[in-house]
Amino acid sequence: MEIRRYKHDAAYSYTLGMALTIELISKKDSYLIRKIYVHPDYVPKDNKYNIFKICKEAQLPIEINQKIFNRLSTKENVYVIGIFDKHDRNVESGKSHVVLVNPSDSGNLGTILRTGLGFGFKDYVIIKPGVDIYDPKTIRSSMGAFFHVRFTYYDSFEQYRQEFLNHQMYLFMLDGKCNLKDMREMPQKKPFSLVFGNEGSGLPDIFHNYGDSIYIEHNHEIDSLNLSVAFGIAANAFSE
Amino acid sequence: MEIRRYKHDAAYSYTLGMALTIELISKKDSYLIRKIYVHPDYVPKDNKYNIFKICKEAQLPIEINQKIFNRLSTKENVYVIGIFDKHDRNVESGKSHVVLVNPSDSGNLGTILRTGLGFGFKDYVIIKPGVDIYDPKTIRSSMGAFFHVRFTYYDSFEQYRQEFLNHQMYLFMLDGKCNLKDMREMPQKKPFSLVFGNEGSGLPDIFHNYGDSIYIEHNHEIDSLNLSVAFGIAANAFSE
To answer: Distance between CA A134 and CA A126 in Å, rounded?
Structure first.
């Protein structure tokens, strides 16, 4: 089967670049890896970062192929691609979650996974419609964090909430009731869910009914913070 | 003179999109605006956001022109462009600064301006080599914050430091000596400078000599935080 540029309905996705592909290979027990492709111009950095050696040790099929790079990659500095089967790893009950309602930017989503993983969050819920977490752009901007997190898509926030009634919901809203700075001194009720809205429109007003709404204090010279920055500030405050 | 796609040595830069262009026009006392270009398919949103009305009131030249959009914009949803002369507004003494050493990503720089402005930082120092703050990509990702900040480029950090010896330097480094969380309780010595390194390589070791090095605590599942996220967490902690 010919590997084409990623589409949402594909059964596979891929890593663009050496570092990401090594991350994928380190998770080969969780993901079925179809093949590793190497660009003819690839030069191993050193013995440790030699993709041929790594693939041999991991017993993975490898192929030198220039055409696939023209098809899949728009960046010039990509010399290694790893193709893997999609495979859902659902969020766990009992763990605190990050919930993104209608996220629309793949780059932001990847940055959120990277940041969240660094602050101890491994469970991500996306309320539809939302960008595709398997998009190679998300995987790339996650810097490999994608391979270390769990995620589940839900059709509605209500559906998610019914399944996790025991979660304390913290809703990040521009007109939230509590200042995040004041939350630092308060005991956190676990498990909890940190809930964020769309990049442009935020969370609809109705979310005030679902739990404690929180705002990140900033002046009025800007309309709002970038979603991944706001998430970073929140995840840092709620990290252990 | 024909307006071409932005290059570093151009005497002008431009805003891509209606919201940014309105921000530019609101700053017409600080910037010489050459002309506002409107796409033939432009439709005013309402009477308040009618670019023809706004330009008339501001006494600015306006031109309907399709070709310039093909030349300057890669995005499809841009119907208004504002061309303005570059004009340096240097950082002020006595104010706290944000110092970026060798920043390499225009999008990150824009997000930093947006975030920083929201937390009260109006003065930005860039140590060369660094991306061009006038790049339309930076202006766009700043969401207009660009027009409300001051900035100066320096050839070296040493040169900057000599000029602002009264500044308390806070150096953000992966191997910093103080945890940012512990800094919150400490009195801040003003004016101060928040100093950040390059996206990939961070601040060189020598920066340990220049003041108090600080780290943002995260686990070892990630190598580092994204620069604009790290900056957001820091700026939030140091905001008034």
So the answer is: 12
| Mean pLDDT to the nearest integer, A7-17 | 96
How far, in Å, are A156, A236, B239 from residue A213 at the CA level?
Answer: 19, 17, 22
A61/B contact by beta carbon, under 8 A: no
Residue-wise pLDDT tens for chain B (240 aa)? 789 999 999 999 999 999 999 999 999 888 999 999 999 999 998 888 999 999 999 999 999 999 999 999 877 789 999 999 999 899 999 999 999 999 999 999 999 999 999 999 999 999 999 999 999 999 999 999 999 999 999 999 999 999 999 999 999 999 999 999 998 777 778 999 999 999 999 999 999 999 999 999 999 999 999 999 999 999 999 996
**Please, what sign has the CA dihedral across residues B164, B165, B169, B171?**
positive
pTM as predicted: 0.95
- Is A123 strand, coil or helix? strand
Nearest in space to A188 (alpha carbons), one of A240, A232, A150: A240
Asked if the C-beta of A225 comes within 8 angstroms of chain B's C-beta atoms, the answer is yes
Average per-residue pLDDT in chain A? 95
pLDDT per residue as tens digits for the range A16-40: 999 999 999 999 888 999 999 999 9
Q: Are A118 and B226 in contact (CB < 8 Å)? A: no
Of residues B148, B225, B232, nearest to A221 (C-beta)? B148
The pLDDT value given to residue A240 = 63
A118 shares contact with chain B (CB less than 8 Å): yes
Please tell me if residue A174 touches chain B, with a CB cutoff of 8 Å. no
A89-95 contacts at long range (C-beta below 8 A, 24 or more positions apart): A89/A30, A89/A149, A89/A150, A89/A151, A90/A150, A90/A151, A90/A152, A91/A123, A91/A124, A91/A125, A91/A150, A91/A151, A91/A152, A92/A122, A92/A123, A92/A150, A93/A164, A93/A191, A94/A191, A95/A122, A95/A123, A95/A191
If one counts every other C-beta atom within 10 angstroms of the C-beta of residue B186, the result is 9
Measure the CA–CA gap between B178 and B173, rounded to whole angstroms: 10
Judge: B233–A236 Cβ closer than 8 Å, yes or no.
yes
Q: Does A189 have pLDDT greater than 90? A: no
**Distance between CA atoms of B212 and B169, rounded to whole angstroms?**
6
